[in-house]
Design brief:
heterodimer, A: alpha/beta, three-stranded parallel β-sheet, 5 strands, about 25% strand, B: about 350 residues, alpha+beta, four-stranded mixed β-sheet
Amino acid sequence: MRIVNPTFGLAAAAGPTVALKPINWATDAIALISNSKPNARELLEGVKAKLGAFRNVDNIEFHAKNSASQAAPKELIQAVAGKYRAALLALGD
Amino acid sequence: MTDIAEQEVIDIGDLDVEAFNEFATEQGWSDGMPLYVPTEEKVAKFVERVRGDNRPFPPVPPRQIVPTLQSLAANAVMAGCKPEYFPAVTAAMRGVLDPEYNLHGTLATTHSCAPMVMISGPVRKELDINCGSNCFGQGWRANATIGRALGLMLLNIAGAKPGEMDRSTQGNPAKFTFCFGENEEENPWQPYHVQRGFAPTDSVVTVMSGEGPHNLNDHGSTSGIGLLTTFAGGMANPGANTIYGKGPMFIVIGPEHAATLKRDGFTIESIREELWTRSRVHVSRISEENQETYVSTGHKPDGEWFSIGRSPQDIHITVAGGPGKHSAFIPSFGGTTVASVRIAP
C-alpha cells in the first residue's frame, strides 16, 4: 500500500550565510539578552558577575525582547549584530 | 536507502488499518486517536478540491519546511475529513501562517493555547458545521475533523511534538480539535466575517491561538447591562495570558444573551467599550511579584487597574450556540492576532 507522508515538505530556500570570526571572550563586547521572562535578568546578572572575575565588564551590556511571547524585533537583532561580537541569551522559563 | 521522512510517497506494504495505526504511532504522526489511512487515492481526491487555489504556502515554523498540497491533504485524510472540508482546512492553515499569528511562539510556548477555528458564511451549511447547541462539543464530523486536521498539520508539518517542540505545561483538550461555526441566523448584529470586511456571501475561516472556552453563566440578569456585568467579571482574570501578554480575545455570545443585549440597544462597539472598562483587574487581585514582572516588561497599570488587552478592539464579538443562558470567553495566547481567511471557491 502506498501512502502520502504527512510530514513531507520541501526545504525552504537558505538565507545568506555569514562567516563567523573568532571571539575573544576576555575583551570583546558582549550582549546579554533577556527573553523577558521572570528571572532572566537575574540569571544574566550572574553571568556578568562571573565574567567580571576575569575581565573588564564595561562593554558587556543588557538587552531584552519587548515581549516574552514574540520573536525579537529585527531592529534589536541588527543593533546587537552591529555592536557586539557575541550574545548570550537567557531562554526558557 | 532514503529516509522515509524525505519521501512524499511511502510504500508501507500490506498493512490493515490497525497495523497502519501502530506504524503511524511509531512514526510520531498521531495525536493519540485512531487515524484514517492517507492512501494516494484518498489524498488525490482532497487535492482536487483546492486545485483552483494556487497561492504557495510559506515555510511553516518552527520546522521551516514548505508543505505540499499532498502532505497537507494526508493530514486531513488521517483526521477523518471529507474531501469537501479540505478548502476550509487549508484556509485555516493559511490563517495560522499569518506572521502576526506568531505560529512559532504559539506552538513552542508553555501556555495551553490551541488553534481556535471559527467558520462563517454559507459554507457552514454546505459542510454541516455545527453553529448551534453544543457547538464547541462533540457530535459533528465537520467540527471534529477540521479542527483535528489543523492540529495534525501543526504536529506533522510544523513539528510541534508534545514535550519536544510543543512545551505546553499542561496542554488543553482543545488541542485535539477546536472548531465551531458562527450562528449567523441568530446573530442580531453583523456576522463576524462582515465585521472584518468580507462580503456576507463569502465563506471565511477565522483562527486565534486561544485557551478553551470559559463559560459565562447568567440565568438571572434580564438586562443587557446585567449580562455585561457578568461577562466582564468572568473576563477579569488575573491568570489569563492577556493580562500581561496583551492580545486579542473572543466573547462568543449565546443567542439568548445576544437577543437581550440587542433589545437593550447594545451594538458590537458599545459591548466592546463596556467590557473593556469593566473587565480591568484591580491591583489588589495581583501579587506584588507579578505586578513587578508586568511593569518591568512594559505592561503598566492605569492607576490601580490592569487592562486585559490593549484596546476595546482586542475584544472580538460573535454569536454561537443554541438555547440557554450561557456565553463564553476565549482568551488568547497574548502575543498573537486573529486571522481571517476567505475560503477559496
